[in-house]
Amino acid sequence: MSTDASPDPLLAGRPVGAASLTAVLRRAHEAGALAEAIPVLRAAAATRSTFTSAADLPRPSKPLLVSEGAPPVLVCVPSFLAGSGPHQFARLAASFERRSRAKALVLPGFERAGAVPADWFAAIDALTNAALSAADGEPPVLVGYSIGGVVAHAMAQRLEETGRPVAGIVMIDTVDPDAAARAASFAWALGSVLDRDADGRLVTDDNLTAMGAYLGLLEQWHPGPVAAPVLMLRAQRRPGDADRPLWDIAQTTVSVPADHFSVMEEDAVHAARAIEGWLHR
User: Fold this and answer.
1) pLDDT in tens, 102-153
2) Helices and strands (H and E) in the chain: how many
3) 240 phi and psi, to 5 degrees?
4) Which helix (H) or strand (E) holds 230?
5) Exposed end of the chain (fewer CB within 10 Å): N or C?
């Protein structure tokens, strides 16, 4: 047995069954070693089945209707942080003065026991197919929350390359995805979610391994140019993440009185007003 001071045997290189992954992460967080535990998620993702293209998916994820309303269609892209999903966009969609038709995507692999993408191309292939289905033939506005903004940007790039451009991209508090800062950024975000998930309903072994898979895929991502207009919403209150800059890619940045989590919850009305104003312009 190792004699080092790692907060958990898994962090010292010993394998642990998948059923204990959530507990391992919680212990690492309590010990202040969550950044060191992030590679554990990537290793655990190897237990998941994979797909190589949208055509390989036996049951493609269907976009979930969040709100009925007028065009343009908002296609919402969640973060791949454990505990994230379409539910995060409900408060935002309900806060628009003039309701838009909004649909939220489920990232492949975040369905219960669903396959995860084998590579970045497979992920974007499946998501662009889902976005086109959600948009009902109209150019959508992609709305990506947190690291979902990076995913939305990659989707827009792919759609432009195939001659089906989007109407715009909204990024909600998307931090700079620079490789050097990723471990710290995801450790902060995951730690915040663990703190907020005291009853253990949001963070599960399944969505932790899905998160681990996407962390690995992100290393294959290379940003490219998009012609679509981009709006960045910046949460003004930044407790604990003040040193994590936003991704400097938007033509328009609007600050909203919220923090990284409340911008989708109790302060979602401010985000909705900012998006509405940008859409009208």
Assistant:
1) 999 999 999 876 899 999 999 999 999 999 999 988 999 999 999 999 999 9
2) 8, 9
3) 85, -15
4) strand 230-235
5) N
